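Exam revision sheet. Question 4 asks you to relate a sequence to its structure. Input first:
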Amino acid sequence: MKLIDTNPQGYRFATPGGEIFLPRVSRILDVVHGPMIGDPEVLANAATFGTAVHAGLAGEETLLETIAHTNQGRKMLLESQDLKPVAIEQMMYYLGEPVKFAGRPDLIAEDRFGFPGILDWKTGALSKRHRIAINLYSLAYFRMTGIRLRWQKLVHLESKRYQVEDVPLDWGIALRTLTEYQRKGVTI
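Answer key, structure tokens:
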């Protein structure tokens, strides 16, 4: 599959059989659990910081001060957790039932024993949505590669520190979320 277009709702891919549109993980979570709400200024600041984190992941130079801190913090985090990056913002898609979807987790890495896992950076408060999202990514990774991730971590980034949360693998919650999305009969 080749990515040909993206929008806030999802991704459009070219396949040998024609085009296919897959909803984003965030779109599925918005439909099932409602959109993220909160103080608009706080959400805007989290979005700006999140953009800087992602730019730092991609090696772009934007919001230099934040990225410099973020890159340093990210390096310290990876070293403290004894992790080796494998893939950064790799597109993942799930073509199973009950709902097909796509998304880009922040990082696939290996721990010191060579076991693969997933990290997802968050700049707002950690929530149930984030735990579901990382399980959706894990499910997609397994369906794409046949490799079961052994661990998952959410990393809550703040301006000068971070907090790591180990998230149990739970494909049941991922599949229940997809079933609920399908039940709501969403069309894009």
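Marking note for examiners. Residues 57-69 have pLDDT under 50 and may be disordered.
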